[in-house]
Hints:
The structure holds 2 protein chains of 2 kinds. Chain A is α+β, with helices and mostly antiparallel strands. Chain A is built from 6 helices and 17 strands. Chain A has helices at about 5-25, 35-75, 80-85, 100-110, 230-240, 425-430, and strands spanning about 120-130, 155-160, 160-170, 175-180, 185-195, 205-210, 245-250, 260-265, 285-295, 300-320, 325-345, 355-375, 380-400, 405-420, 435-445, 450-460, 465-480. A 16-stranded antiparallel barrel of chain A has the order 1-3-4-5-6-7-8-9-10-11-12-13-14-15-16-17. In chain A, α1 runs antiparallel to α2 (about 35-75), α2 (about 35-75) packs antiparallel against α3 and α2 runs parallel beside α4. Chain B has a 4-stranded parallel β-sheet, sandwiched between helices. The longest helix of chain B has 25 residues, at about 165-190. In chain B, α2 crosses α5 (about 140-160), α5 (about 140-160) runs antiparallel to α6 and α6 (about 165-190) runs parallel beside α10.
Amino acid sequence: MSFFRHPTRLALATGLLLSATAHAQSKAPTLDANGLQQLRQQIDELKRSYDNRIQALEAQLQQAQQQLTQQAAQQQSTAAAVAAVTAVPAAPNSVMDTATAADSAGAAFSSANRFNPAVALILTGGYAGLSKSPDTWQLSGFLPNGGEVGPGKRGFSLGESELTLSANIDHLFYGAITLAVSGEDTISAEEAFVQTTALPAGLKVKAGRFYAGLGYLNEQHAHTWDFIDAPLSYQAFFGGQFKQEGVQARWVLPLERYVELGLELGNGHGFPGSERDRNGAGATVLTARTGGDIGFSHSWRAGASWLQTRADGREWTSTDPLDATTTYTNTFSGRSRVWALDGVWKWAPNGNGQVTNFKLQGEYFRRTETGQVAFDTASLNSIDGYRSAQSGWYLQGVYQFMPQWRVGLRHDRLDSGRNDFGVNALSLALPSYNPKRDTVMLDWSPSEYSRWRLQLSDDRARQGVTDHQIFLQYQMSLGAHGAHSY
Amino acid sequence: MTNKTSLLGLSLALASIALPSHALKVVACEPEWGALTQELAGEHASIYVATSALQDPHNIQARPSLIAAVRNAELLVCTGAELEVGWLPVLLRQAGNGAVRPGQLGMFYAADFVRKLEVPTRLDRADGDVHASGNPHIQTDPRNIAAVAPALAKRLSELDPAHAADYAKRLADFQTRWGQATQRWTQAAAPLKGLPIVVQHKGFPYLENWLGLQQVATLEPKPGVEPSSSHLSSVLTRLQQQPAKIIVRAAYNDGRSAQWLADRTQLPVAVLPFTVGGSERAKDLFGLFDDTVDILLKAAK
């Protein structure tokens, strides 16, 4: 294993000696203690640089040899590998270039796969024990919305598996897609967007399908939530999460404090809007956020956001107040506006949450709708004005009391508020009821990549009914290391 | 009178345009790079350090304050080698600052200029939170700091050519002082050669490589996985066959598992500052190594 037995090393060592001598000669007349010191360091640097280079070369050689053997076994031409061996890039001439040189040298040998996007996969599933049938689940006092609402199915079930592919597209754009495979074997694009990376002055523009900048949780994927299900407010006002298809512009202001403003224009197809046969934007979202630190241990973020969207014949089914077996199809056309206020506060001793940390978050929503409701579109088709003003909030705290273990508590509440159906009041009247839910959660994360969760809820979404719910859930993250937003 | 006032006002306004000592806005991901930038840039840079020595650099919240800092930065000085992979990409995407994207002059990864140790031959999460490009905790060997310094100085002068001469002067001055200090530390730590140690997290391969320390066990069963009692018991058993002299942990590590082992083995625990700010004496890079070497020597006695 002599250093000089290796021809490459011998050549490099000779080069090293030569360049070192040349250097020493040029400096020789002014050598003093400092000069000597500098010279030593320069030689050290050279050594380091050559060491790096030798390492890179050795790796290349190894790779090339592997390729050669593989190809020989397959009785294929070895020309490519030989070409690869001879195509070693010119030796970098300063220590500052070695890292990049090593990288690009490695790339010369690999296939086009090197440019494949980062792949991250979330696997989730679990068990739900519900004291009441989920088929009867509804939010009393609120119009049904047909979204991803309710506690889900009883018993074991596969949750939503998420596959995210993301990469820089070029020097200007970043792109990502998140495909969700539901337990019912349907595939949907949860998000699919491109985003600018090179705009100046804190500006970003996003286009495609993306979660709107409403409130705090809306922009986060379900696997980053601290509870298994979305707060009742999200279920009531957005049918789960509100997605935009359109464009988003965000601007982080040039201030020492974080202040970010956002504007979104979307097609407004998602609830509370509906598909419309129109040009132009259907949904507009305005977002404003700020936040900061208090010492090392505390940080916070607060935001206000506003959504205006339009529905054109948004359908729902109602049952006859006197005869539960008769159902009617009804539609709403008009304007829907949602105000959202959100706040989150995190604590960790000295900002190090490894052992203990605490997170408090809360959001408030208020939705007003004005327009026309058509009752029983199939036959009677009685049309009259409709106005509603409803609100809801939740507050939750999650405490990590020891490494890997967290406990959480959440309170949900909705206010069915005012619903004015005009002449259709008798047929469509909603009960005046404030759905409530209390939830406790315990989870265990043996590593950053896996989590097991137990959740108990007392769900009083249905008037006069309490549903005792127990959930068990696993959440696993495979592949690229995901970075999580605040 | 009016004329004089307006003249005064005008000259003040001009002064504020002509004079402002524009300091390069630098965000250092870890305190050691903040300290190195301070050494090399002095008053030419205003430095925001994103993390503290009491925080685990793998696990940082992408907080609003950090988004604002990255948004305003002209240069980010980070470790790289995937150390910040859990938070920096989010900050970069949210801050919307094209000047500090990877590949731009404004993004400086220190680990690019250092020969990395523990480059894994296989990548499998069953091995814990391994970093594909090698161990990222490069700041525990002063020779690595010496390797990063000229590259950082070059980057500073590329971004701020007006002060290039000053950066070169400061670099030369730093290199002289650092070279002498490294010699001093290496000599002082000579008795530590071959010392068998237990570490909490695999955070010290560069320190071990520099001083010839011998790591015989880790308290974390896998990198990034909290020490479990069953693993600690197996470490205890292993130490009976292969004894160690000291237990080493970083200031940011939870001290309980190291203490548990210390109680059962009577081994001293060396709490190393790990980075600038990790101890009373580690006020700058020189203090960091003064203290590190002294703590190790004291514990090994």
